[in-house]
Each structure stands twice: as structure tokens, then as C-alpha cells.
């Protein structure tokens, strides 16, 4: 009796690459057994400076891609032959940028973030982040590399992973740069090869030139230049034409601002003496003299 045929297994999806760092076959197999268990490996072949390992189960191949392998105390990155899962590091990330924003940016390229983002910290101050985060990311089937840098919320961030090569920042193609990408179309003029902020029709209000916006301006502009221009405009507008009627001036005698050299300052007239107050001394009658006169009259 024939056994029931099992569904075909795509062994290419179950295969991974481990870059050789002088490992022996025994060291590699023991490391894989420690992660996924014994009797899970179909083949292990060394070719062109790397080990190609094929596993029985696709889930095992995905697991060691997500976690990597520790071989003789040293971490080794594992890359899928068909399904590529990489450790992606991002540099220069401010603490206020959420992990979800980093994942969303990669998902825009068709990637799938398989793990949480791990935040690194300064060695001297373990409580302070140093702007580096990393996660395991499954690459899209049509791409093996991420661009060297991305921008989130006007923050320029470096992107790094193993065996990274330069690709188009727009579509991840290895055949052209972003400037040559056919999908890189300006939304302002509809032409290929530049973004809206770099469009030749855009005028910078900082340097008054065309081809970039003010926040991308690299020209050194004198901060007083605008004030001087405004001042010149005001002076030009305030000039009186020759044929304009002049205002009628009043006949006001000019007042000298200084005294002649031979003129002495005027002296103030002397003050008039104060009038003495009239004082009237009242003559008081002596009662003794009055009594004596009365007596003489009676005699």
C-alpha cells in the first residue's frame, strides 16, 4: 500500500546562509541544534566563504534568521537564501521618535518587522539612550538591501545591516540611484528625477533663488540684508520730487543757539528791601498814676 504523498516542501525557503568566520562544521551544527533541536538539518555545505544550511522545517529557518546564531561565544548573522531576515540598525534616532514610526517606514518598502525595536544606551550613563535601535526585519522578496539613510519627521537617520550595498532610496533597486528611479516623480511639475522641494519651480524665500525651499537652503544670508532692503525702500519712497510743491514756511525768527563771545550774561536786578512791618506799641495806662490824680482833684 502506497503511503499518502505529502505536500511538496520548498527547500529553498528552508535554506539559510551563515557567513564563515573560521567556524568548523561541528561548531555550526551544535549551535543550530541548541536553537531548534536535533535532527532538524537536511544539509550543511560550505561554499564561497559561507555555510548554506537547509532545514526540514521552514519555521526553524525563520527562527534562526530572527535570532541569529551564537557560535563559540560569537554572534553570527543568518540570512535566508530566498526569504531574507536581517538585523537592521538605525542610528541618530531622537528619543521622541516612536518605534511604530520606524516600523512604518520599513513597511513602506515592503519589509516586515519581526521583533520589537531594542534601544541602546550610553555605557557611562545606562539610563540615557544613544540614538541607536535595532530589530530583525524580513526583507521583501524583490529586495535584499535597504537604503543607507532614511528621513522621518525631518530627521536624517543612518540605516545599516550586514552585506549592505547601495540601492535606490525609493524602490530598493540595485540597478539605479534614486535620481534615476522611474517612480521618483515630482508632484509639482510632474517630471522625473527630483522631489517637490527640489523642483526648479520652487523659490526659496531665504536666498530668493529657485530650485529649493527655505528649510533646505545652504546659502549664507546676511540677517540684516532684509532690514537694509526695507530701509532703502522707505528712503526711496520718502524722497520728494523736484517738481513737487514745497510746504510754506512760517516767518519765524531764528533763535540763536549760543550767546556771542563779548556778551556778558545779564545780572538779575537786586531785590527790593522788604517793607518793615508797622509795629504800634500800645501805651498801657498805669493804675497807680490814675488813682493819684483822682485824689488831687478831690482836695
UniProtKB/TrEMBL annotation:
Q: What residue intervals traverse the membrane? A: none
What Pfam families is this protein classified in? zf-CCHC
InterPro entries named in the record:
ZCCHC3 (IPR042509), Znf_CCHC (IPR001878), Znf_CCHC_sf (IPR036875)
- Provide the GO MF annotations for this entry: double-stranded DNA binding; RNA binding; zinc ion binding
Which Gene3D superfamilies does the record match to this protein?
Answer: Zinc finger, CCHC-type
Domain of life, per lineage: Eukaryota
Q: Where is the composition biased (Acidic residues)?
A: 218-232
Q: Does the keyword Zinc apply?
A: yes
User: Where would I find the CCHC-type domain in this sequence?
Assistant: 186-201, 203-219
**Annotated region (Disordered), positions in chain:** 218-299
Q: Report if keyword Phosphoprotein is assigned.
A: no
Which GO terms of type biological process are on file?
Answer: activation of innate immune response
Q: Which UniProt keywords apply?
A: Metal-binding, Zinc, Zinc-finger
Question: What is this protein called in UniProt?
Answer: Putative zinc finger CCHC domain-containing protein 10-like
